[in-house]
Amino acid sequence: MILSPAERSYLYDSLSVQPPVRPDARSAHQFRPIEASCSFLPNSNGSSRVRLSDGGEAIVSVKTQVVLTKNESSLISIDVDINKERDDSNFIKNLISSLESILLKKFPIEKLKLTERYSFKVYIDCFILSHNSYPLGLLSLCIYLALKSTRLPLLTSTVNDREIEEQPTFNDDWEASKKLFEPSEHQDDPPLLFVVGIIGNNVFIDPSNEEEEVSENGLIVGFANGEIVPPVQSTNLSNRDSKGISPKHILKAYSMVRNCGKEVVKALNTVVSSDDDVFTSIY
Amino acid sequence: MEVYSPEGLRADGRRWNEVRNFKCHINTHQNSSDGSSYVEMGNTKVVCLVSGPMESPSSGRKPNSSSNLTVSISMPSFVSNSRKKFKKNDKRIQELCIFLVKTFEQIVIMKNYPRTIISISIVVLSQDGGLLPSCVNAITLALIDAGISMYDYVSSINVGLYDTTPLLDLNHLEENDLSFLTLGVVGKSEKISLLLLEDKLSLDNLEKLLAIGIVGCHRIRDIMDQEIRRHGNLRLSKITNK
């Protein structure tokens, strides 16, 4: 998006006053409205779709496969695909590395363990239909929903195959399948990433396209189980030259993410619990 | 697996002349495209986004040399049962795009859109047979939503042959086992605008398949027409209530 010098200066000034005035009248800790649904792909273990009010939309599918644990370097594989964009672009590579950096560290791997020898391998495939602002926050919400809606078949064979070699067998009945993340146990939720924009002394969550254009810097903050978790990365949201971040900004961003994170998780969990039928249409 | 039982039932419980559950919606992505639609044929789910008519980026250089209508199909790696990465220039996908362009160049009133581009982008969410038919149906709906002038609807379906029995609207398993043809029909007429037959089929069975296919296409057209009218009425009521 190209802003004229006048627009740029107006946006910059209104976002740097105390409290910031955002172009869509949100408060600094408020998200844009999202539309979300999950469990609609019949071929996947879990799936979700999230759409922002600016038209940005992502679809995530979670598929699993039984693998020999010792043959796999990682039990989680993430792939991002953007409509009409090259697979090997730097933009996509950066998104994947940001997502990997949190998911590989904060994913409760022991949930994937089947027996002594075998595990589930989780393939997270993200597809971005369209995006206007930096899509990392959107993807993270979508991945959270997809993982929360993931169902795995129930293991019927023995868990201990240390002595006797045995292939794991599963219950055919999909009704008996178990959720990867049970709704009752909240201590092991999948991690989330939040994008925070910085202008002047202000920080604001979920920046829109115009806000990204004038922002001086951006932060990516990880959040899991009610706490801030590493990685915390700085990122350039606009192509203009950026300014440095002071520790004050980071502390502000931390407290903001800690407060909104809980609300976001609560909202997403309601989506998961209300949407649990593969035969519903997604639109 | 038994494709067609002696009692006249297929593996998924349908009779020979029954189509799968067909669902469609238009105007699903009003903020990110000029026209959009979502089509579900059984477990095949397709989203179509149309942008245009818009100025072509290279209109100065080559006004009429290439087509003004472009189609691109994206297949994310999760579409089929087993995970498979599709390349952007996959030959099969390129071929499908060409069929779709050829079909819709004849249906869209192209003389109304000189020196402009209509770009159609299809995203397949889930693949269970009948990919080309669902793309055709989704494009028809999305073009209507974009307000692009067309002569009529094109509706499409595939028909397979089991021994001497024609089977309507095949799913993925049936497509693998039977020889089948895909046809697209213009509106309520018997004009065939798209016909694709990639397997061997005896000539005396062809007429039978075409006959049931045309009936199937008309049925699909009716469902699509219903959805368009439902959406039109919804918009009208929004305007009149203001």
Automatic annotation (TrEMBL), chain A:
Keyword set includes Iron-sulfur: no
Subcellular location: Cytoplasm; Nucleus, Nucleolus
Keyword Cytoplasm assigned: yes
Sequence intervals crossing the membrane: none
Source organism, top-level taxon: Eukaryota
Name of a matching Pfam family: RNase_PH
Alphabetical list of InterPro entries matching this protein: ExoRNase_PH_dom1, ExoRNase_PH_dom2_sf, Exosome_comp_Rrp42_subfam, PNPase/RNase_PH_dom_sf, Ribosomal_Su5_D2-typ_SF
Protein name: Ribosomal RNA-processing protein 42
Keyword annotations of the record: Cytoplasm, Exosome
Gene Ontology CC annotation, any one: cytoplasmic exosome (RNase complex)
Gene source species: Pachysolen tannophilus NRRL Y-2460
Domain Exoribonuclease phosphorolytic: 30-153
Gene3D superfamilies: GHMP Kinase, N-terminal domain (3.30.230.70)
Chief place where the protein resides: cytoplasm
Gene Ontology process terms (BP): exonucleolytic trimming to generate mature 3'-end of 5.8S rRNA from tricistronic rRNA transcript (SSU-rRNA, 5.8S rRNA, LSU-rRNA); nuclear mRNA surveillance; nuclear polyadenylation-dependent rRNA catabolic process; rRNA catabolic process; TRAMP-dependent tRNA surveillance pathway; U1 snRNA 3'-end processing; U4 snRNA 3'-end processing; U5 snRNA 3'-end processing
From TrEMBL, chain B:
UniProt record similarity statement: Belongs to the RNase PH family.
Domain of life the protein comes from: Eukaryota
Subunit-structure text: Component of the RNA exosome complex. Specifically part of the catalytically inactive RNA exosome core complex (Exo-9) which may associate with the catalytic subunits RRP6 and DIS3 in cytoplasmic- and nuclear-specific RNA exosome complex forms. Exo-9 is formed by a hexameric base ring of RNase PH domain-containing subunits and a cap ring consisting of CSL4, RRP4 and RRP40.
Taxonomic path: Eukaryota, Fungi, Dikarya, Ascomycota, Saccharomycotina
InterPro entries per record: ExoRNase_PH_dom1 (IPR001247), ExoRNase_PH_dom2 (IPR015847), ExoRNase_PH_dom2_sf (IPR036345), PNPase/RNase_PH_dom_sf (IPR027408), Ribosomal_Su5_D2-typ_SF (IPR020568), RNase_PH (IPR050080)
MF terms in GO: RNA binding
Keyword field: Cytoplasm, Exosome
UniProt-listed GO biological process terms: exonucleolytic trimming to generate mature 3'-end of 5.8S rRNA from tricistronic rRNA transcript (SSU-rRNA, 5.8S rRNA, LSU-rRNA); nuclear mRNA surveillance of mRNA 3'-end processing; nuclear polyadenylation-dependent CUT catabolic process; nuclear-transcribed mRNA catabolic process, 3'-5' exonucleolytic nonsense-mediated decay; poly(A)-dependent snoRNA 3'-end processing; rRNA catabolic process; termination of RNA polymerase II transcription, exosome-dependent; TRAMP-dependent tRNA surveillance pathway
Domain Exoribonuclease phosphorolytic: 18-148, 152-214
Primary residence: cytoplasm
A Pfam family of this chain: RNase_PH
Record-level GO cellular component terms: chromatin; cytoplasmic exosome (RNase complex); nuclear exosome (RNase complex); nucleolus
Source organism of the structure: Pachysolen tannophilus NRRL Y-2460
Localization terms from the record: Cytoplasm; Nucleus, Nucleolus
Protein name (database record): Ribosomal RNA-processing protein 41
